[in-house]
Amino acid sequence: MTVWDDLQGQDAVVAQLRQAAHGEGLTHAWLFTGPPGSGRSNAAKAFAAALNCDQADVSLRGCGECPACLTILGETHSDVAFVRTEKVTITIDEARELVATAGNRPSSGRWRIIVVEDADRMAERTTNVLLKAIEEPTPRTIWMLCAPSPADVLVTIRSRCRPVALRLPPAADVAALLVKRDGVDPAVADRAARAAQSHVGIARRLARDPDARERRLETVRFPLSLRGVTAAVMMAEKLLKIATEEANSSNDERDATEKTALLATLGAPESGTLPPAMRGQVKQLEDDQKRRAKRSITDSLDRTLTDLLSFYRDVLIIQMGNAVELVNLELRSELEDFASRSTAEITLARMDAINKARKRITTTNVAPLLAIESMASSLI
Ligand SMILES: [Zn+2]
Questions:
Q1: How far apart are CA 286 and CA 307, in angstroms?
Q2: For residue 26, how far is its CA from the centre of ligand 1 (angstroms)?
Q3: DSSP code of 119?
Q4: Which of 23, 208, 326, 361 can bridge 314 by disulfide, Cβ–Cβ 3.0-4.6 Å?
């Protein structure tokens, strides 16, 4: 096993990063771009592990087995920081703190590495704080910024970073990964990868959780019964409820895993009360998890709207007489019927309305319910 194994369908990126980790073309600032689910932060993490891997032989770096690789993949290495915002944007204070950390020499590894997962969620003023650090790098520091596309970060930042462009892997590659890594049944893996539109994390959830599959199906069926304003208001409420349930259920699973891992690291007793010193650390983790929960509802809502969008995407494909495979194959007859009752122009306008709502929810502080209600009424 190596740190590159999970980067399914990203051969070009793996080759580029491997080469850099071996010392060819290494630079101090990188910009990882790719659509959500393409694995840009995983790619950055694998690269960080390969750079700080304990193997003496350069060609073996990124072994995935040494303490450095394992702690970096587990996000507990002292020289590798992961920055992901729990809020809608990264604040200027957080950016200053990052820059201060970046100035320190690595304590054990070869490099101090800072992975900024949401470089697109920074105000211009905040970006300028980072820019200064990236312009005048400290010798042993490497910045890795992640964003959906190069256009999502300021050109001044972008021009100083080496680009790493991930693509959305084909659904077949995602399905193969689920079968190989998670032992999912091939037919289930195939359906999940298609429904998740190749988003690896979502595909995995859909494959393993029948409730998640049920929630998704409920979402994509909404347009079929959307007849009037009352239905639109109800749809908005229901979508928000589905997104919240989805976020809570994936958080619960992750929260429990993190807590078990923390207790194991602390060497906590298997039963009974925790010693006071450990209680503080557990409390800290729980506070972080609560903050994260809020942000994850926004992300989940965006994902729910993407599912809804896939309905209209399929309708449009049918209306254009295109032979591309449908995302929602199981709804084919409903989709065909729906497509025959509108035009491609109307479908495009509806897709615009959904994308507008997504944008409002993820980039502004508008109340999500208001944004979805206004979207739902333009879908009637
Ligand atoms: Zn290693």
A1: 30
A2: 18
A3: T
A4: 326
Cα–Cα distance between 343 and 341 in angstroms, integer? 7
Exposed / middle / buried, residue 34 (Cβ in 10 Å: 0-12, 13-18, 19+)? buried
Both tokens of 377, joined, read 């009424």
Please tell me the distance between residue 6's alpha carbon and the centre of ligand 1 in angstroms.
15
Q: How far is the CA of 95 from the centre of ligand 1 (A)?
A: 29
Provide the pLDDT confidence category of residue 79 given band limits of 50, 70 and 90.
Answer: very high
Question: Could you identify the residue written with the tokens 């998640």?
Answer: 212
Instruction: Tell me the CA–centroid distance for residue 181 and ligand 1, in Å.
Output: 20
Q: How far is the CA of 267 from the centre of ligand 1 (A)?
A: 25
Distance 112 CA to ligand 1 centre (A): 16
Question: Is the overall model pTM greater than 0.85, yes or no?
Answer: no
Task: Tell me, in angstroms, the distance from the centre of ligand 1 to residue 64's CA.
Answer: 5
Percent of the chain scoring above 70 in pLDDT: 98
Q: How close is the Cα of 48 to the center of ligand 1, in Å?
A: 10
How far does the centroid of ligand 1 lie from the alpha carbon of residue 74, in Å?
Answer: 13
CA 178–ligand 1 middle distance (angstroms): 24
Element holding 147 (H helix, E strand): strand 141-147
Please give the class, per CATH, of domain 11-165: alpha beta
CA angle 135, 137, 139 (to 5 degrees): 155
Asked whether 13 and 30 are in contact (CB, 8 A), the reply is no
Per mean pLDDT, which range of 25-34, 55-64, 174-183, 266-275 is the poorest? 266-275
CB 141 within 8 Å of CB 101 = no
- Specify the pairing of strand 141-147 against strand 29-33: parallel
Name the residue ranges covered by the structural domains of the chain.
11-165, 171-208, 225-378
Nearest to 346 by CA among 306, 307, 319: 319
Q: What local confidence, expressed as pLDDT, does residue 283 receive?
A: 85
Distance from the alpha carbon of residue 229 to the mean position of ligand 1, in angstroms: 58
